[in-house]
Amino acid sequence: MTLLMLAYKSLRSRAVTTSLTVFSIALSVILLVGVDRVREGAQSGFSGTLSQTDLVVGARGGSLPLLLYAVFHIGTGTNDISFDSYKHFRDHPAVQWTIPFSLGDSHHGFRVVATDDNFYEHYRFRRDHTIQFAGGGRPSGIFDAAIGSEVAAQLGYKLGQKIVLSHGLERISLENHADKPFTVVGVLARTSTPVDRAIYITLYGEEAMHIDWKDGTAPAIGEEIPASKIRKEDLHIDQISAFLLRTKSRVSTLLLQREINTYKGEPLTAIIPAFTLQDLWSVLGYADVALSLVSAAVLVVGLLAMLIALYTVLNERRREIAILRAIGLRAQQIFALFVLESALITAVGTIVGLVTVYVLLWVFHVPIETRFGIPLAMVGLSKRVVLYVFGVVFAGALLGCIPAMRAYRTGLMDGLNAH
User: Fold this and answer.
1) Is the pTM of this model over 0.70?
2) pLDDT 10s digits, 88-117
3) Where are the domains of the chain?
4) Among 244, 243, 247, CA closest to 96
5) Rounded distance, CA 194 to CA 374, Å?
6) Which of 114, 137, 389, 404 would you label with 6, given CA atoms 20 to 30 Å apart?
7) Whole-angstrom Cα distance, residue 360 to residue 121?
8) SS (H, E, C) 10-48
C-alpha cells in the first residue's frame, strides 16, 4: 500500500506529463477497442434486423446487393419481379408465409416501402420481436400510411397528418405525388432497425400513386387521375421489388432455394440471409484487420511515449530515488515503484479509453443509424476487449521495467551527488 501511495503522489507531482501520457494511452485504446466494438455492434445490428426468415428473393443479381436493398434499404435494386412469380411461390406447398416488398419512392430521404398485412404479422427481428405500434394501427385504405419511429421523431408527424410522397430516392425530388397525399394512420414502435426509418403503405397504395404514370413519367397537367376516383378494384399489382419467405421445415429451404434460382418463369435469385451476411463480414474483414493494425500501431506509439516520459525524468529523480533509499526502501522496492507507476498510467489510460468508447457509442449509434442506415447495436465487453485491456496494462508494466532497471542501479551516493 505504501508503494501504491508513493507511485500515486509521484505521478501527481508530474501532473502535466502524466496527463499527456494517459491521454495518449487512452486515445490508443479508443481506436483499438472502438474498431472492435463498432465491428461487433454492426454485426449484431445487421444480424438482428431480420429473424425467422429463411430466404430473400429478388431479381437475378448479386446476393449482397439484394440483401442490402431488400432488408436494409441500402442501395437500389436491379429489376423488379412479376407479381405472378411471387404468387407462384407464395402458394408453394413448402412455404409457410411470405412478405412482399416494393420500393422505389421516398419522403424527405426516408424510404417508402409498399407491403401487405403479412409484414405486420410475420416480420421478426432480434430473434422473436414483432412489429408493434406506438400509436394507431396498420394501413388498410389505399392512401393510408404507417411511419417508423425515426420518421415520426425527425419530421414531427402525428396521426391523421397528410404527407406527400416523392418519386425516386432523392432527398429533394422534383417529382412529387402531390395529387395523391397519404394519411398517417399508424406510428411504429422503435425497433432500432431500418424499420424505424421507413414509411409503409399498401401495395395498392403504390399502384394508385402511379396509376396515371407511364414508363416512369409523370402525367401531363390535366391528365392526373384524382385520388377520390381511384378504387381498389381498379388497381392491379403487376410487379414487386423482392419478398421474404419462411419454409415449413428447414430441410426444404435448400431445395426451395434451388427451385427459385432455376425458375423458368423469370430469372430470380434466392439467398439465405445468414450466409450472405457471413460473406459481408468476410469482405469487411480485411478492412477490420487493417484498422486494427493501425490502432495497434497507435497503441505502440502511446506506450513508447510513456516509456520516453518515464525515462527522460530519471535524471531529475535521482535525488528522489536516493532519498527513498535513505529512508529504508530497498532497490527491489524502487524497481517495483517504477513498474507500478507505468502500470498505473496504462491502467488509468485504458479505463479512460474504455469509458470514452462506450459513451461515444451510446451518443452516436442513433445518428449513425439515421444518417448512414447502418444498424449499430450496443454491445458490452467481449473476450477480445478483455484481452486488449490486460494486454495494454501488461505491456505498460513490462515497458516500465526499462526505467525501473536503471533506477534499480542508481546508488545512494550517486543520487545524493546529483546536481
Assistant:
1) yes
2) 999 999 999 999 999 988 888 899 999 999
3) 2-46+285-416, 55-271
4) 247
5) 8
6) 389
7) 36
8) HHHHCHHHHHHHHHHHHHHHHHHHHHHHHHHHHHHHHHH
